[in-house]
Amino acid sequence: ALTLKKLKSKNTEIFINHKVIEVNGSKVFLEGKEEGSTIEGVDKIVIATGMQSYIPFEYKGKIPVYFIGDAKHVGKAQDAIHAAYQVAVTL
Questions:
Q1: CA 76, 54, 67: angle at the middle one, nearest 5?
Q2: How far apart are CA 69 and CA 87, in angstroms?
């Protein structure tokens, strides 16, 4: 809850029920339930999804990508939370 509050205070856009289909330069292309979207000016990407380690989209560019939780490697929830915290404080 505190993390979400902090993200909202910094006007962070949060996309729910969207799938990243491509990252090209500083643009991220999303696919949603109804239509696609493009986010421009992206400087960092954090991936925290899935039950196995994988990159679920085509990646072209130099934007830093951070994998946390099971997206990095399957493990304990406590370890995933700690890794997420470590990434969050550096952003």
A1: 60
A2: 11
State the burial class of residue 62 (Cβ atoms within 10 Å of its Cβ: 0-12, 13-18, 19+): exposed
Residue with tokens 């979207």: 37
What is the reported pLDDT for 9? 92
What are 28's strand-pairing partners?
23, 39
- Which residue bears the tokens 């969050």? 88
Instruction: Mark the ranges of the chain whose per-residue pLDDT is less than 70.
Output: 49-58, 73
With CA atoms as reference, report the closest residue to 68 among 44, 91, 43, 85.
85
Distance CA 26, CA 48 (A): 20
This prediction's pTM? 0.58
β-strand partners of 40: 27
